Amino acid sequence: MTAVLAVTGATGGLGRRVAERLAAAGAELRLVVRDAGRTRFLPGSEVVENPGGYADGDGFAAALDGVHTLYLVSAAEAEDRVQQHRTAVAAAGRAGVQRIVYTSFLGAAPDSVFTLGRHHAATEEALAASGVAWTALRHSLYADFVPSLAVVGPDARAVIAGPAGSGRASFVSRDDCADVAAAVLLDDSGAWDGRTPGVTGPEALTLAEAAAVVSAVAGVPVDYREETVEQAWASRRPSGHPDWEIEGWISSYTSIAAGEMAAVTDVVATVTGHPARTLAEQLRAHPEDWAALRR
């Protein structure tokens, strides 16, 4: 019997890319989603609904019945995100899943400056204690996310503002993340068990440099403006979002300033056989990433 490979987050930007690559490779695929109505048909794929998401451990375990390998896309930002991940890992173990490939973050550690880096470290600890073979693909900040950091002002200039200083980030294309994930998921040799490879772009840029790249590709003026932490809180509080979420936003900048996102690896090239895409290459290939800046 062919081993069943389950993909979560298949209606999202990363999970969809991974599912498409696995389907093209002929994998026996199960898409575990909250809403089957949002799932695009993929040849050879089975769709199983789990409306309760990771928080519903019993529902998730039932959705994974008969699955050998699980691609576990990290949950949307939430105050109970770590608990959701722990519940999902435990459910996978109960369901008899043999292997989990998880989407973690570059430099994940209990003492990360970046709030989400600490969350991912806690999830990796749960994976290590689960008794299931596991791999944590530690992604850098997504390159396609960079334009969304910019706010367009009344003068049509866009500004990326935050306390990142002159720190650098190795922005990575989600296309590359998906290529790496598909290769790792299809390799059942055990070579990836217990490993935490950093998946990055080919260069580390300051936010001023990244803003210049976005400006050149999108054809609109984009600048970086340094903020203090206090200014960052003041500029984001009016959004009405809860403090835990704002802290996550701001700590992504302070993490860059601390050098936590500056590492550049050769994982993309080594695993996929093609070079990692630059920020400019990602944005040229995906104009939808920056279309909002021109409205």
UniProtKB/TrEMBL annotation:
Residues 9-187 form the NAD(P)-binding domain. Transmembrane segments: none annotated. InterPro entries: Ergot_Alk_Oxidoreductase, NAD(P)-bd_dom, NAD(P)-bd_dom_sf. Signal peptide: none annotated. Gene3D superfamilies: NAD(P)-binding Rossmann-like Domain (3.40.50.720), UDP-galactose 4-epimerase, domain 1 (3.90.25.10). This is Uncharacterized conserved protein YbjT, contains NAD(P)-binding and DUF2867 domains.
